[in-house]
Amino acid sequence: MTYSPPTPKTWITKFVYSFKEGNFRRILETARFLRRLGGVWQANSLRVISGLAVVITCDTWKDYKQLVTKTKQLSYRIRKLDPQVDLLLLLSPDETITEVTVLATLESFAIRNSQGLSSFNGGKG
Question: Where are the domains of the chain?
């Protein structure tokens, strides 16, 4: 059987509804998702990582903090739904912090950037 990636809308719906009803699912229902090839780099430690990424962002810092505290749970669900995804990127509301998780190892680190999305490549932005 060959792998066929899920359509974005179907994937997001399955992902969001895989969580129990409640505050966290409400945060995911209002969040914005992007699934695309991309990468991140960190000049200080000379780290470059690229691959298929899922980017999640929300409107408030309170919601962003909730996403960050659930990074492992989000990572496991993403890997289960789409094993082709390499990275989870949680983008802060003002686009100055990106919490990066490498899904294969669950290694996480934060990139702080006063210029927003310039720490993310792989297309427009």
Answer: 8-121
> pLDDT at residue 90 above 70?
yes
Amino acid (1-letter code) at residue 89: L
Those residues whose C-beta lies under 8 Å from the C-beta of residue 81, and which sit 6 or more positions away, are 6, 11, 14, 15, 18
The backbone torsions φ and ψ at residue 23, rounded to the nearest 5 degrees and listed phi first, read -60, -45
d(CA 68, CA 55): 12
Query: Helices H, strands E: what count in the chain?
Result: 4, 6
Structure tokens at 100: 């990066």
How is residue 17 written in tokens?
């509804």
What stretches of 18-102 show up as alpha helix (H) in DSSP? Answer: 23-30, 61-69, 71-81
Confidence of residue 117 (pLDDT cuts 50, 70, 90): very low
φ, ψ (nearest 5 deg) of residue 60: -125, 155
Q: Which amino acid does the sequence have at 15? A: F
Give percent above pLDDT 90 in the chain.
Answer: 57
